[in-house]
Design a protein that fits this description.
This protein has nine helices and 18 strands. It is an alpha/beta fold. The strands form three sheets. Strands 3, 4, 5, 6, 12, 13, 14, 15 and 16 form a nine-stranded mixed sheet that branches. It has a six-stranded mixed sheet with strand order 7-2-1-11-18-17, covered by helices on one side. The structure holds flavin-adenine dinucleotide. This is FAD dependent oxidoreductase domain-containing protein.
């Protein structure tokens, strides 16, 4: 960025206090409110803002160096406005997968080649997270399963089948991973009443908070890393010499030449050029339990339940027999102010407060008399983008500012490998093209221009 002092933007999209309590965050890790030092360090080589999967994975990849790399590791400062992993990563459905139905949208919007690259990238994320969990001996209830995209509606089912056949015919990448079951066996195989069709795909089911906090533990033990929780970044100023930045926080200032924005739905609060490009969007999920001693069929798959093409819930059974379910968007979708451009996860979305009650009894074979009840409901903030794709890479027109954000409710399937790309850009000085991740994910000026109000 050129010289000359800029007026710092004051952050109006800060994470709010007293966020709703999610099941995943029910037992805080010892790092939850940790500060490596009492005061902020005055300077750091790299400042990473945000400690969800994106921020912590970026720090991990920066430090995960080859044995023959003798250069001293850079100093990294991780800044988090609230507790560690208290954003969307601590509040989601716990899935890493790409739905067959969303592949269709990608093909329609970006063509088969770009969609194919994207699907391969998600696959790399599934196996990348699995590998790091094994390598770093992380206990996060991670399990490679099948995820069923189940249609309960005949019209939707025949459209899903038609689209899948088209993908098979065009030998779309990874159709070999996807399996179709039709009406004759869908109900038995999926355990869902009224199932007309199901497409299954590989999924990594995991406990996201456990994954991120334990990965952070490994990061802190690897190098020169300082973690500061309950430290909100309020504004960024370009220094007079144009070579670095002053990061203004709720607890003082830090100088740095390199900033990583891993702030997902909150990004536009710090980077005004992302206003109308990454919009905060509130969503909800729940945890359903069965009374002790009650026998119910164990569900070994995860699900997307398609009541209709525009009414979809997602469901992730836990090893203890309880269930995490999210969705219910159509109960509040028309009341836009309840969710769109809304970053308040301290309250529930009222029309969906009781939506999950009885969901298992209504839909699953053998669960009718289970006594299953909604144990807790929470909300979280996603980052919805103008063109439906995340923004990854160097912030256009800057030097030393990087972003990975805007996952449209699917960041678990993108962020880990996006973080590798950003880490390599910083560490190796390579360009976005050289990272090998799909071109359509690069944050560019042309994509930012889409947000300009004419
Ligand atoms: C209800 C729900 C269900 C979902 N289900 C799924 C799913 O099943 N599969 C899937 O792939 N995705 C799912 N998602 C989306 C997924 O959770 C996100 O895309 C992903 O977690 C984003 O990770 P992140 O690290 O970029 O952002 P976050 O986890 O939101 O982390 C951003 C962090 O930045 C911090 N921060 C923000 N601004 C500042 C600031 N100014 N100063 C300091 N810190 C700041 C925040 O406090 C937060 O901790 C779901 C999301 C929700 C809300």
């Amino acid at each position: 960025m050129g010289g000359g002092k800029e007026t710092p933007q004051v952050n109006r999209i800060l994470p709010v206090p007293n966020s709703t309590a999610s099941y995943w965050r029910s037992k805080p890790h010892w790092l939850d409110e940790y500060r490596s030092t009492e005061q902020l360090p005055p300077q750091a080589d790299i400042v990473i803002i945000g400690t969800g999967i994106a921020g912590v994975s970026t720090a991990y990849h920066i430090l995960d160096r080859k044995d023959n790399d003798n250069a001293p590791p850079p100093s990294i400062l991780l800044l988090e406005a609230r507790q560690v992993c208290s954003g969307a990563t601590g509040r989601n459905g716990g899935h890493i997968k790409k739905l067959p139905s969303t592949i269709v949208e990608l093909i329609q919007n970006y063509g088969s080649t770009a969609a194919g690259e994207f699907v391969k990238f998600v696959r790399a994320n599934i196996y990348g997270v699995k590998r790091v969990i094994e390598k770093e001996k992380i206990e996060a209830e991670a399990e490679l399963r099948r995820s069923f995209d189940v249609s309960l509606n005949k019209e939707d089912a025949s459209e899903v089948k038609r689209q899948f056949d088209e993908q098979l015919q065009s030998e779309f990448p990874l159709t070999e991973d996807v399996n179709y079951v039709g009406e004759e066996s869908a109900e038995r195989i999926t355990s869902l009443y009224g199932a007309v069709a199901g497409l299954s795909t590989p999924v990594l089911s995991l406990w996201p908070y456990k994954f991120v906090t334990q990965l952070l533990e490994r990061v802190l033990s690897k190098g020169n890393v300082n973690l500061q929780t309950n430290t909100a970044v309020i504004a960024i100023e370009t220094d007079d010499d144009g070579r670095g930045y002053t990061v203004n926080t709720s607890r003082g200032q830090v100088k740095t030449p390199t900033i990583v924005f891993a702030t997902n739905g909150y990004t536009a609060g710090l980077l005004p050029q992302y206003r109308n490009i990454i919009t905060p969007s509130k969503a909800t999920a729940s945890h359903i339990t069965v009374p002790p001693g009650q026998q119910v069929p164990y569900l070994s798959n995860t699900y997307n339940i398609r009541y209709a093409s525009d009414r979809v819930d997602y469901l992730n059974p836990r090893p203890d027999g309880s269930i995490v379910v999210g969705g219910g968007k159509w109960t509040y979708e028309k009341e836009r102010e309840l969710w769109y451009d809304n970053h308040d996860d301290s309250t529930l979305i009222e029309p969906a407060r009781h939506y999950f009650d009885g969901l298992m009894q209504r839909n699953f074979r053998g669960w009718e008399d289970s006594g299953a009840k909604t144990e807790c409901v929470w909300t979280g903030i996603q980052g919805i983008t103008k063109d439906g794709l995340p923004h990854i890479g160097k912030v256009p027109g800057t030097s030393g500012q990087y972003i990975l954000a805007g996952y449209n409710g699917g960041g678990m399937a993108i962020a880990f490998m996006a973080a590798l790309a950003v880490a390599r850009m910083i560490r190796e000085g390579i360009s976005f093209d050289q990272t090998g991740i799909p071109n359509c994910l690069e944050t560019t000026q042309a994509r930012l221009d889409m947000g300009k109000v004419h």
